[in-house]
Amino acid sequence: MVNLSITYFKIREILRHPLSLLLIFFVPLGLTLIVGHMVEKGQKQLEIPIAIIDEDHSDFSRLLVDRISSQAKLHLYKVSGENAERMLLKNDVDSVFVIKKGFQKRLLTGQREEIIDVWTSPSSIAEGIVREVIASETARLTSDVKAADWVVKVFKNLDIHIDQSKTWNAAYHYTDSQWEPEPLMTIQYDQLYLEESGEDRKELGDSPYLRLWTFFTMLSCFLTSDWIIREKGVLFLRIQSTYHGLVSYLLQSTGALFLFHSFQTMLAFYIFGKINIIQMRPELLMLMIVYPFVCMALSVWSASFTKQIGSYYIVSFLFVIIIGILGGSFFPVQEFSSTLLKLSMFFPQNLLLSNDQVKIHTPLFVSGAIVLWMLAIRRLREKR
Amino acid sequence: MDACDSEVKRKAMIQIENVSKYYGKKPSLQGVTLKIEKGEVFGVLGPNGAGKSTLLSILSTISKPAAGRVEINGLDLKKQAKLVREQIGYVPQDVALWEHLTVKDNLIFWSKFSKQRVSKEELYELCRTVRLEEKWNEKVSSLSGGMKRKLNIAAALIHNPDILLMDEPTVGIDIQSKLEINQYIRDLACHGKTIVYSTHDMSEILSLCNRIGVLKSGVLQFSGTIAEAREMVKRKGFLPNSDEKLIYFLLQSERAEKPLP
Ligand SMILES: Nc1ncnc2c1ncn2[C@@H]1O[C@H](COP(=O)(O)OP(=O)(O)OP(=O)(O)O)[C@@H](O)[C@H]1O
Ligand SMILES: [Mg+2]
């Protein structure tokens, strides 16, 4: 039977040292949640502020205002004329849109010109986007109205008696429902985007959390491998003269650490699942556990090279950041160029941040990690 | 010191044949041949850089010799390293302990590396032998240099090994503790343990070691008892009036023809 007493001892040691628990649990979990929350808040601040003046106060104008305010990238202020002007001058808003009086009436009569005014300042950037949104929404309204008018006219021409207003409303709502859940154009854009980048956006839900988790978990793996540097001198030598020996010590110690990292991963999986960042699929959990395994192999391997503890911290920090950037821990680099996309496949983040290649790559990553472990162990037990 | 000699059966525990070791091209051991018997305290002597630590690290299976053969208690060092490790306790020249752990945890941790289970009581007893029982629950980082050395020795004794390989173990340890540790080692030898002991300490050489080996630039210049050493020196025409001068002469063998101060 395998003697695991070194593992037990190491586990007890980790449990008894608050710093190691902090590094294993707080760094990947706590920091991911905190920084992720800040990034999300920051993304909200990236919304473009615009002001809208509703002079028409009709059903259609209110509908348009609602629809614009539900746009993710826009923050809408509903204001009066003077306020809007002041806000624009103070650059509090990017641009001002005025829904002119008679908006609904003109739409109902099929007129689509000069129903909305735009006030811009030299620093305005959002005008184009908002124009598009408004154009699409007015197109929606006018086509709904046209379709409803046409249906009523058809019945009239056929001399079929109907309740005109009921029929008109039914036709209007039916046509309108054709635009749900999204305007058709948007769906096409998204599909193109998916095909090109090969990224499953639904999986990540555009959330920064899983990305950040890959970064902080790797950092945690590196920081918790520092014992190798501290012990690799005379302690490792002495351990080589013992019955169980250095290989057993290395395997059991890193094994104990991996246990903790896996536990952290399961916790992260549970928490992220509960707050709807990820879908709680068992395959994803498996990939998430493979990730710290690969990270630990990387960290143990680089620790086997480094002599000084200070340089280990500096080097591993830089290393983790560079791998983080190229692997996509901070933003989807894959979308920038095909070279970066190809490059990112070789970083362990790829296990989680990409979906298509997973099937081919997981065994590759695992075997790569095992090779790194073996190389590291060989280096560390090198006979003097 | 030879009081227990007769009780112990003479048996070669360590046999070193023509062992060489190089760091780069520079030899740190050259053709060393040596036999160390059971129940013996064998002193390894030599100036700095002579190859004492190299020899001990080869015996402790840490280093591989470039050439030659070593047998420990009938086991081939190269092929049966794991079995050899069961039987040896190695005290490295540098302190090898986990600084952030307590004395107790260090002993417990080291005990996990041996084959047999060692109880906490036994470890505490060992701690008393090296007079560290008061520091039982203190972190190694808070111990003095000498105390660390004592614990360094204790860690090698945990699994009660038949062969002790000690590389300058008592450097920096106070006289009283050193004498006690020496006495303890002598007792171990009396009980049939074999001890290879590297030292620069004249009194340890004379009071502790049954036999000595003198290394110089990786070459074994002499091995034998103090009496044999005296004979050899005499043959060279030098008559030391004290054991100290004899040792001095041995270590200076290169300049052996020069008169001593
Ligand atoms: N790791 C190493 N790399 C290169 N050379 C080494 C190494 N270890 C020892 N040496 C060289 O081997 C020779 C013997 O060294 P060793 O440590 O065995 O000497 P020693 O007799 O123990 O000396 P001291 O009394 O100072 O402890 C020295 O010349 C030393 O420079
Ligand atoms: Mg030495």
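^ adenosine-5'-triphosphate complex. The radius of gyration of chain B is 19 Å. Residues 175-190 of chain B form the longest helix (16 residues).
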